[in-house]
Amino acid sequence: MEIPYTVEARKDTGLYNAKVGIWLFLASEVMLFGALFSSYILLRVGAASGDWPAISLAWPHGLLNIPIGTFNTAVLISSSITVVMAWASLKMHDFGKFKLYMGLTLLCALGFVSIKTYEYHEKFTHYEVRLQDGKIMTGHIQGSPMFWDLKTLADKKITALDFHPDAAKHGAKAGEAPAAKEHAKHAPIPVGEITYLSAFVPKHHTFFAIYFTLTALHALHVIGGALVMAFLWLPGAKMWKTDPERFTNRVETAGLFWHFVDLVWIFLFPVLYLL
Amino acid sequence: MSDNHSTADLKKHIRTYMLVFLALLVGTAITVGLYYVHFESVALTVSIALFVASIKSFLVAGFFMHLISEKKAIYAMLFTTAVFFVSLMFLTIWAMNDYPVIKP
Amino acid sequence: MQAPSHTAEHAHGHDAHHEPGFLTKYIFSSDHKVIGIQYGVTSLIFLFFGFALMMLMRWQLANPNTAIPVFGKMLEALLGDVAKDGIMSPDLYNSFGAMHGTIMVFLAIVPLAFGAFGNFVVPLQIGAPDMAFPRINMVSYQAYFLGGVVMFISFFIPGGAAKSGWTSYSPLATVADLAHRVNGQTLWLLGMVLLITSSLLGAVNFITTIIQLRAKGMSWMRLPFFVWAQFVTGFLLLLAFPPLEAAGIMQLMDNLFQTSFFLPAGLSVSGNPLPVSGGGSPLLWQHLFWFLGHPEVYVLILPGMGIVCEIIACNTRKPIWGYKALVNSVLAIGFISFIVWAHHMYLTGMGTKISTFFQTTTMIISIPSVIILTALFLSLWGGSIRFNTPMLFALAFLPMFGIGGLTGLPLGFNATDIYLHDTYYVIAHFHYVVAPGTIFALFAGVYYWFPKATGRHMNEFWGKTHFVLSLIFMNLIFMPMFMQGLAGMQRRMADGGATYSMAYAKENNTGTQDGLSPKIIKMNKTVSHAAWALGVVQIPFIINFFWSMKRGRKVTSDNPWEATTLEWQTPTPPPHGNFTTTPEVFRGPYDYSVPGHKKDFTPQNQKV
Ligand code: HEM
Ligand SMILES: [Cu+2]
Fold this sequence. Notes:
The structure holds 3 protein chains of 3 kinds.
Chain A: H1 17-46, H2 66-91, H3 95-124, E1 126-131, E2 136-141, H4 150-155, E3 160-161, E4 163-165, E5 189-190, E6 194-199, H5 206-233, H6 239-242, H7 244-274
Chain B: H1 7-37, H2 42-64, H3 72-97
Helix pairs in contact in B: 1-2
Chain C: H1 7-14, H2 22-27, H3 32-62, H4 71-79, H5 90-126, H6 134-153, H7 172-175, H8 184-212, H9 225-257, E1 268-269, E2 272-273, H10 282-316, H11 323-336, H12 352-380, H13 389-406, H14 409-412, H15 414-420, H16 424-454, H17 460-487, H18 502-507, H19 518-536, H20 539-551
Antiparallel strand pairs in C: 1-2
Helix pairs in contact in C: 3-5, 3-6, 3-19, 5-6, 5-8, 5-9, 5-10, 5-16, 6-8, 8-9, 9-10, 9-11, 10-12, 10-13, 10-16, 11-12, 12-13, 13-16, 13-17, 16-17, 17-19, 17-20
Bound molecules: protoporphyrin IX containing FE and copper (II) ion.
Copper (II) ion binds next to helix 10 of chain C.
């Protein structure tokens, strides 16, 4: 006996196997991201009230790059439309268009991941410093090194830190933070005065912890989805000749996953960047 | 098979896809725009942002993922999932916020 | 994504002239029966391994801080200073305890009940040629196997295996071994991610198979109850595991990247402030863990109930009483089990409103469980029972699960649980459910389906011996634990409760007259002796199992038990693709002794 309903739909359910499978898988993904969203809410509601960074356990606002985040949202949304177009092209037996749209989707995926990498790098080179006199600053270190902390300073035998503080105060009203790019005047800070130094890495604050966890997990999904689609675009596309219906189904299933990844981002973007 | 759209059908669908695409871009613009407008009430900001996100996700799920016209089995599956997700979120939040307060 | 592509290996299996090599046939097979057997053998080995850990721990409990005979030296040679002079250190006890729980739950019972029996039996019972996604099925087993390897390796890394219980509560799990950056807990989490992946793939596959691949005429209400149980189990795994995966990822971040998902501010360890940002919530871990944890206990028990139901129907030669009630109950259990989890957390200072909510749902979920048990009991009424080995195990399941279930009620009430929480009462309660409960059901399943898988029967005499002795020793192990728990003896104690050393003071007439009575502490010895005896009486089973594969009595027909369900209407053992002709189903699963029929059983695929 052969396994039935791999291509054609079963009468009573109206579905082919892979479609049931992918939706079940997506259901479990809903629970995965749902649990992380719930965790986000609880951490955020549980955060201290007041303005970060003056109150270090308060929830920070406006630390992420909104224009870039918006652009990346548009990129991902575009990839959703191209992937659905790729599928529709197959349905209309236009293999050339399928190749085009799938290629565009992959391009979007690549763009999304590259931009995300740039954003990560931006955070890894952005620092918070606390000084003995109680002053707290955020800003960059000369040369934009990543991941420095007090131990790095000691190891590198640095005596004065060439620090460029951000001009705008973080936690300021919306609209100010991202615009202010010009750096305030500065003089190197003697290392002895520094009580705390950390880049915007996961351990710096639970906000960054959940930000990096959620976005990294999401990026892994993007990469995974892109790999599958790259397979369908190049070597897997051979199947169009031998078994077009099944190939179309495969593209549809991959597309469903891709839309889900898009859907997750639709929530991640406002929650992490804007609220 | 109901999946087998005719080409004319598909052309219509493609129009819908394009409209949805536009709507998604507009939704993104609205959310970001509101961020710069800035409301006094945090609750209002959060509600609007989540409302727009919900609409957007409804569009993606409904049209790109064809949930608008899916089979019963899939609705049942997703409904179950939604119920469990909501109970996870809601009960956890409730539990973390209901603790005995000791009166002096 | 999930798009199946098995035409290749399918054509392969049908190619009569091409003998698949050993590797493709037994190791990298995508045939559900082979995968089922792989799951079965691997999980039985883990079952014994988890039990072996406990047998060693029982020495420490019975004779605290004395050298373990023979094995103590071996432990020292293998693990070093944690077993200095053959004495089990508290650290080692903690590791063994945490790993006993983890291995038993995630590497032994679930893979055996779901992976092994589910894989082998479900496609056969619904009349399908294989699982819907055979290659994903294979990957699922491989992920499980890798997860097991990671867990096993963790015993031998510096610092030893995870020590924070199978529940891995934060912050303990994060700070238990600060000396090693990659420690037992890290491997535990990585292992869990693999095991969860395996379960998810398995669940997707099972549910799709049951929805899509039912034979013609196999409507939902004609499914054997076992298939229903596996169906619900699949959903529990599918939807309850991801939150634990999320929690696992966050704990991994806490452990590897010093984030504070589960760490509050101001945490000190041995007097030193922990250099983390704080701002996290330890309770969050508990919520996410128990969101899986409670459905997981139904994952442990539902397949067992399914097996018992099949065996009782066959060996009473009459239809199951209340098939519809069984199906509705198992569905109800599936749903409600997602909203009872915080009954494990009454001691965390939850308020009265939320406690009341969880007490209520917990009491409600006991109703369908009682319905299932009652229906199975009533099914015995008026049957002409065949007392073969599988039936004996199935019959013993009923009262054992009954004891386990009923003793759970006091744990579901806030007021009583505050006293009973974390005592040996809890240990006794859930072990009655999983050890003489589920394990007996699984043994029953092994004896029952062995002839289908191998074409030979297991030896009845040794089977019955195995049954009687196991039943006695199981009860000797777990019954005293109820008393110990009620007396207040805490679980997870490396010194067998001697922390409450007033017991010893009392015995020697020194000190005050409070604390555990010496009688309670001495029960540790009885229990330990029974546990070792239980180990010994598994030898007949092991020998019987292997001996019967080669030498057992050959079956005389494809349907040696004269059962009605479809798995018995195939050749023995079933070939690749299972059925020689496409089966069609005409009747419900339990048409035994139908009046007017020639035989006392009418298979589902028989028209008249
Ligand atoms: C039949 C042989 C078994 C014996 C003699 C046994 C004995 C024990 C004992 C004495 C403890 C308490 C240890 C302590 O608190 O220090 C324990 C804990 C536990 N056992 Fe078993 N057990 C057996 C089988 C099982 C099975 C089949 C399961 C499957 C689910 C299981 C799951 C657990 C779990 C989850 C814990 C809690 C571990 C922890 O504290 O984190 N056990 N067992
Ligand atoms: Cu529970």
